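User: Quick sanity check before I run a bigger batch. Here is a single chain. Can you write out its predicted 3D structure?
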Amino acid sequence: MHIAVLATNTDDSAFAARHPRDVEKFRAMLHGVRPGWQVTAFDLPKGQFPEDVQGFDGFLIGGSPSSVHDEDAWIDRLMAVIQQAHEAGKPLAGACFGHQAIAKALGGNVGPNPGPFVLGTAETEVIAPAPWMESVSRFRLAAAHGEQVTALPPGAEVIGQTPGCPAACYRIGTRIFATQYHPEMTPAFLAALVEEFAPQFPAEVGAEARASLPLGSEGPRFAEWIARFFEQAKMV
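Assistant: Done. Predicted structure follows.
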């Protein structure tokens, strides 16, 4: 299996320099559940893009402090890649910005959170589990977002929801699987992220974020679901 990781993180701060880049986080996440898979990572804001969508078995699009509405050339190019991959029948998985970008590229809408910035961990209530998931009622992942999908693209089905985010996880048939949250973030990185960025928000955002950390995050479980998603797509 050959997966293209499309990293979209534009954070070049000193904080980012002290931690693994997103390309490394997603590679570690996938290799944690499928060590033998080939993973090729592209740093989109730096102009790195796959030359041909046919060269990969699937695409995984990560998170970013950028908005899908920003007028940056790499975002426009990403939208085109998503459309090309989808038209070619290639499976696409998305996390946070990737979740939003897939929705927007395929006809959905993205807008601000109805409430404050979401930081820490968030529990998704599963309302219609996908076939590649375990039969669970809920799961918890790292969270860091100020925007979300406000209208799903045609053919999309909600898998799970969180308070204030009714399209927290969705799929389109067997070819799209996306979450508003972050399976690639380790507990240690998330704790550092909260301490770094909580002071930028109202005090209650930081307090809720810190209180959520002991509840844990199920990144490895979601990573297994992503792997199964790619596997079933190849068999169809």
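The first helix runs from residue 14 to 17.

User: Great, the batch can go ahead then.
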